[in-house]
Amino acid sequence: MSGRPLDVLEESLNEPVTVHLKDGMAYHGTLAGYDQHMNVVLEGRLDVDGEGDALGELDVEAVEDTTIIRGDNVVTIKA
Amino acid sequence: MSGRPLDVLEESLNEPVTVHLKDGMAYHGTLAGYDQHMNVVLEGRLDVDGEGDALGELDVEAVEDTTIIRGDNVVTIKA
Amino acid sequence: MSGRPLDVLEESLNEPVTVHLKDGMAYHGTLAGYDQHMNVVLEGRLDVDGEGDALGELDVEAVEDTTIIRGDNVVTIKA
Amino acid sequence: MSGRPLDVLEESLNEPVTVHLKDGMAYHGTLAGYDQHMNVVLEGRLDVDGEGDALGELDVEAVEDTTIIRGDNVVTIKA
Amino acid sequence: MSGRPLDVLEESLNEPVTVHLKDGMAYHGTLAGYDQHMNVVLEGRLDVDGEGDALGELDVEAVEDTTIIRGDNVVTIKA
Amino acid sequence: MSGRPLDVLEESLNEPVTVHLKDGMAYHGTLAGYDQHMNVVLEGRLDVDGEGDALGELDVEAVEDTTIIRGDNVVTIKA
Amino acid sequence: MSGRPLDVLEESLNEPVTVHLKDGMAYHGTLAGYDQHMNVVLEGRLDVDGEGDALGELDVEAVEDTTIIRGDNVVTIKA
């Protein structure tokens, strides 16, 4: 899973990701969409066994609803 | 309700959404319009039964008038 | 009064609006003009009976002179 | 003196204006020029009788020299 | 390893880099990709012998997963 | 010396200017160049008799070397 | 060594420069490259005799490795 940033997002569709924002918050969910500004759409995860280790971190919120995150808030996206 | 960020906004027209801003405030209302900058238009909701759970959160304001939110303030839009 | 953000501004021409800015200030006046950056022009209102409820809010200033507000300061415009 | 923001600036050429900036400062002078970014040029006023009421405000500085203000600092321009 | 900034990134592909961000954090990993906005992709390093001196610095985090860093957070990238 | 902002910069070439920045600092020197972003080049002044009154201000630094100032830091340029 | 900002950078290639950033830090090194955004590449200097006076300043760091600085952090570049 390597390559240019948008290639990595494309490969991560329907996979769990953790998005860290400039305000210190982070969101964990399934990557449902993105665009060239790194605006992303996260959805709640149905499977919470095993991979959700980021949820143990401080200030990581598991999304429940469909959540659009505006790209200019993003610091990192961990696939 | 998945796909690219603007697709999600298109599907959310006339539906209730909660918009969280960089200043910590959030607005809850019916999505009446949007554009490619994520500028959005919210209107007051006529139906307040059942779905308004976000209103229990801190600093979530139910809009009363037609309210334009400039996109560069947006952190998340929850559909 | 719904639709895309600039459509709402077009429909609000010559109507009273309240513009909330990122610095916490707000300006109340008649919308005399706007452009695609959400730069807006407010003018003093001749009629102050009835609709000026926003004036009771903290830090809302009724404009007296023709006032241009640069769009990148805007958080919300309430029609 | 109404219309789109740049129209108002065009009509205000050679007229006194007060420019409020994001850092809390304000400058008062004759509008000598502007461009599409709302960069403006102020010049010292020869006539200081009557209209200079803004000068009584806190942190309003009457310009003496030709002063270019970069547009991204501007909050409001009062004509 | 000199030249224009994007040339340096191109030459640094598959090499270890340290990316310092505006929030004071830094990430150390193998450069897996980049684009013209200086969005970068880092991956965990398999070889941690010898070159990882940056890891002794304060607030430098060795990435474990594939990590996209949005370019507007970047201060420096040290190859 | 009036007109559009870039016209004023063109007329100020080889003349002393004072550039005030968003961080509160100011630089005084001879304007050696500029571009459309208001990036400017200042050089040390050979003549320091008479016009250097700005140097008496707080936090105004007379440049010694050729100094490029990136335009997005600029608040005002006084010709 | 005068002219437009990018001309000054072109003339400064392979010469020592000091880059001051918005976070208060500064980097001193040989200018190995730049682009139109004022992203710059600095390299460690082999010659440290004589010209390195900036190194006596507070918070000026002499670069050791090839260092890309993203242009939007730059306040000044002193040639």
What's the architecture of chain A, going by CATH? Answer: Roll
**Amino- and carboxy-terminal Cα gap of chain A:** 9 Å
Query: What is the CATH topology assignment of chain A?
Result: SH3 type barrels
Q: Total number of β-strand segments of chain A?
A: 6
Indicate the multimeric state: homoheptamer
CATH class term of chain A: Mainly Beta
Q: Using only CA atoms, what is the Rg of chain A?
A: 12 Å
Query: How many domains, in number, for the residues of chain A?
Result: 1
Q: How would you characterize the largest beta sheet of chain A?
A: 6 strands, mixed
Helix content of chain A: under 10%
The average pLDDT score of chain A comes to: 87
Note the overall shape of chain A: globular
Which two chains form the greatest contact, residue counts included? A-B, 19 and 19 residues
Unreliable sequence segments of chain A: 47-53
Class per helix and strand makeup of chain A: mainly beta
